[in-house]
Amino acid sequence: SYELTQPSSVSVSPGQTARITCSGDVLAKKYARWFQQKPGQAPVLVIYKDSERPSGIPERFSGSSSGTTVTLTISGAQVEDEADYYCYSAADNNRVFGGGTKLTVL
Amino acid sequence: EVQLVESGGGLVQPGGSLRLSCAASGFTFSSYEMNWVRQAPGKGLEWVSYISSSGSTIYYADSVKGRFTISRDNAKNSLYLQMNSLRAEDTAVYYCARLSSPLDYWGQGTLVTVSS
Lengths: 106, 116
Fold this sequence. Notes:
The complex is a heterodimer of chains A (106) and B (116). Chain A is an all-beta fold.
């Protein structure tokens, strides 16, 4: 089975750039997605195929990939971006989520 | 509008069984692969199981293999998860999810509590 590793928390002030990393061997050969989850709500897709942004997701959300690490970048983070963020990838007969990163914007 | 509505959660004793259902609407259910994902209280997301659009290909997380069974009825636009030999660590909100980016959809989840 595969593993994806994320930092447990990231903290930024409003307007700063937040970067959340996700590492795992599977990312060298498979795309990653990023989900945002706010308390009491279902997850929402914010990035897919490493760097593509779904319709309706603000442009401040972007993704990148290098080797076995993908990064979610929130440029000019807003208070409403405070949430848990999860990376996700699928390979062969496995699907895996990262452990999640709590983003604090204050 | 795409909707996924889970049902069947509740309180069950350790060793017991429960069957979750997910009613899909707003899209051609038979064309999409589906997943179950769970989230223990205060914890992260954990993928549980996958089923292909036809039901011919099925995968499970190691943590549930041999105890859980995923299935679907395309005529009824429904996804199921039969959970047997439940353990305390299976306590979680269970989400039905269509992970077909960029159009990923999740239900609101159903809570399963395994406790005596």
